[in-house]
Amino acid sequence: AWLQGSWLGVEIWQYLAVFIWLLLGLILRKIFEFVLDNYIRRITKRTKFSWDDDLLDSIERPSGFIFLMLFFSITYTNLQLSVTVNLYLSSILEIAVSAGFVWLFYNLADVFAKYMTAVTARTETKLDDQLVPLVRKTLRFFIVVMGVILILQNNGYNVASLIAGLGIGGLAVALAAKDTLANFFGSITIFADKPFRIGD
Predict the structure, then answer these.
(1) More confident residue, 39 or 104
(2) Which helix (H) or strand (E) is 15 found in, with range?
(3) Which of 152, 175, 172, 154 minimizes the C-alpha distance to 162?
(4) 3-state helix, strand, coil in the chain (%, to 5)
(5) 131 vs 51, 110, 119, 127, 150, CA distance in Å?
(6) Residues pairing with 10 in the sheet
(7) For 147-193, what is each residue's pLDDT tens digit?
(8) What integer pLDDT is reported at residue 27 of this predicted model?
(9) Is 23 left (phi over 0), alpha (psi -120 to 50) or beta?
(10) Helix pair angle (178-193, 159-176), 10° resolution
(11) Nearest Cα to Cα of residue 117 among 129, 104, 135, 103
């Protein structure tokens, strides 16, 4: 009967349920990461190439976080909290899952850059070696921006007006930094045409 009592508008059994819910989620995440780190890693270590090991290293923590947030998203209704709390909790967990995928793809960009570094190291020219860090930074920036836009759109914000505002702001920045942009496109021309290389 004492479990039916309430404190701050929440019943005692619900406090215990939230504690068990959080503890169970963390335990399941540890089990998930243990399986990745032990059983899946054994398979990747048997291969001759190393990119699969880098891939597993990059996805281990974000995939564990996504697994945890998905578990919370599926099971939070069992706590029988109020409609208002469930609404906020649903929004927070949805944002957390989206942020987890952004984190995952952000790390995958590093794996892709490392693979591209190995590919460009086989070529004679050194200009493409300098291009890889630029591609890596651009790809990571693109993933973060797209992730933020998708999160905002899924939560009811008007992304079209935001992008239009960013376009106007980008035009102002372009006019103010025209020399920097000219140098940037000039460097792209050098990378593309390869008129000379380092050491000339």
Answers:
(1) 104
(2) helix 12-35
(3) 152
(4) 85, 0, 15
(5) 20, 14, 12, 6, 28
(6) 7
(7) 888 888 777 777 677 677 667 777 777 777 778 778 887 877 777 66
(8) 92
(9) alpha
(10) 90
(11) 129
